[in-house]
Amino acid sequence: QVQLVQSGGGVLQTGRSLRLSCAASGFTFRVYAMHWVRQAPGKGLEWLAAISYDGSNKYYADSLKGRFTISRDNSKNTLYLQMNSLRAEDTAIYYCARDKGDCSGPSCHYYFDYWGQGTLVTVSS
Amino acid sequence: EIVMTQSPATLSVSPGERATLSCRGSQSISSNLAWYQQKPGQAPRLLIYGASTRATGIPARFSGSGSGTEFTLTISSLQSEDFAVYYCQQYNKWPRITFGPGTKVDIK
User: Do B89 and A112 touch (CB under 8 A)?
Assistant: First the structure.
């Protein structure tokens, strides 16, 4: 079965760096685009970044201002999010998600059909 | 950026009743809309994509409609497990997707 297992969260001080991982299994990881989404405590969902199936294209939310980097290692079936210069407002649960990229019909649909379990990142001063 | 809005913010419904949730885009997104359900402590779960297509395993009591800028998620007869927060998501500007702020469905 499809699984996305996340790791790497924790508590850290402002200005520090952290790398999140998302290990995929149960499907052919290398053919799917992947995303990171976060959710601040008690708030809604915020899209952060996306990466194409082969890692050649990366996209980011403007709000990140270049502090985060998405990457993937298809040989290890793993997605990463490198987070630098962390701020208190980065405190959130971070989710990885698989982009279905469903083009089986007359048009393509890009929805998130599987999500990781989420990992909590707490940034404090 | 396409801004998604949802109404109401909270919907109080009795079990067995019908719930109607609304989602609006700041510009036309055709039918490039998905709905997700999120329960406390859990990751979001895909319900609907293409504005009206139920995802695999989603009960028939969930239905979606709309196109352009106005969308609706209807739960025909609320079950206890349906009390949750519901988010709409546009993917018309993929990969720069955006979510609505959510509608919380709670027990009346």
Answer: yes
